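Q: Joint fold for the lines below.
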Amino acid sequence: MNFAQMKEDRSLIRRVARGDQRAFDDFFREYFPRLFRFTVSRVDNDEALAEEIVQRTMCIVVRKAGTYRGEALLFTWLCQICRNETFAVLKSRGIERQRNVPLEDNPGVRAALESISVESDEPESIQRSEEIARFVRTTLEYLPTKYATALEMKYIQGCSVAEIGERLDVGSKAAESILSRARAAFKESFRSLWDFEPNFIVD
Amino acid sequence: MSNDNKAGDDIAGRDHESGQGDTVARLLNLAGLRPLIAADIEARVYDHVHQEWRNSLPASRTGKWAMPLALAAGILIAVTFVTRLVLPDAPLVGTVARVNGGFDGSAASFVSGDAVRVGDNLRTGDRQLLSVALSDGTSLRLAANSSLQLDERRSYTLLTGKVYADSGQTVYQDSGLEIRTGLGVITDIGTQFLVSFEGAALSVAVREGRVDVAADQDTYTALAGDRLMMQAGGGVTKGQIGATDSAWDWTLKLAPEFDIENRSLLDFLTWVSRETGKELIFVNDELRKAAMATVLSGSISDLTPVEAATTVLTTTSFAYEIRETSIIIGR
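A: Joint structure:
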């Protein structure tokens, strides 16, 4: 349980509920992009549909900000509301839910993932790889923005610690610290969200 | 790449716990960069959600004038209210920083971030505390059951209750705050001080710096540690009050938030010292320099200054002791 993050979440949402403009802006800036990407991947990348769902979700959240008890991460709460709104919007439009439930929502994911090798060219393996990729992206959305940004910059874009620090507006030492904590948070979130061990990949 | 960058990257690249840095990298590279979101989508959603949020907030303050009827000894101050004409270009005094406690029928209600202007009346109810960040950085804090009229940019009338002011610096200024009451006028020269006025009695306590109190055609000076007490009908007495006396405790609930991210440990401990009145003591100068060089990260939201100090210091290698009147940093 990330108690420190939950405490931050409670403080932020409390200030939003009190009408703090700066808190509202912080809340929107932090959570809109993550929620949008979380949603768009669930509606076949239909951005207009995702926009409607996210707008409805965030409107509900700001109206009900006073009811957030901080027993789960704020993003978890947002995602729960978002799932409900996704279902409601799809139903109102007469759109059937996808037959393939996203892998991350499947309780049997662990057994399936443990059997694959990402290096394989087999169609099944490629599909699993794509599903894992979505896992990864979803995990990143569960992390604070600065953590996800630091990880992407380091491991995907090959940026140096100094460049990461410059982007996050912190010194190099602080950037190192953020990267270290981001890696730990990513692994923990990946495991706990999907009940999955990252060492499934065979070296 | 400089040696420092390379060393930093080496450290960031290694996973000391499990050697699984490569695994994280492979997972991330498998996923690739997350897609960008079109700016117009974000702007549209922001506008809608912001409007919804504003509509969901409690009604804004009524902004009524308060005019005192009587300020004689032994008579409870009675105030009446008339509707204030809203003057859209009234000079800005500051913004509401924090509001603690609920609203229990008070006429005016403020929310954090609200602008406060010349002519406004700040009034708190039974269990309510309010702080304002003035434009010059001074923190003004109102206790429960208090009423402060903002007459001019830096001249206010304390109608009843308690107000605490912290100008955030010890350098004396030419023009300080002026707090008027029915029994005297208090002028701040760069300080932390507390004014209590309950109709028949005025008390001015100074935590740091100096204030001048003009009353009964005379001027009295109070320095750090002094408490001046005046009664209606005459009589001024001077007593002592420690910087950590319980009389200051309620002001802690309105301490402005201190963001520790990228701030030095020394800055943070200085803030704790200022808010609690506890003297900050370093056993030697090397420790002070080390505290200056120690950069913090994280959040101390919702923690009192002392709780925050304990939480932060336990994550460092500094030995410390928090006593009733001091914080001691050792090795």
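Q: Anything notable?
A: Chain B has a mean pLDDT of 77. The radius of gyration of chain B is 25 Å.
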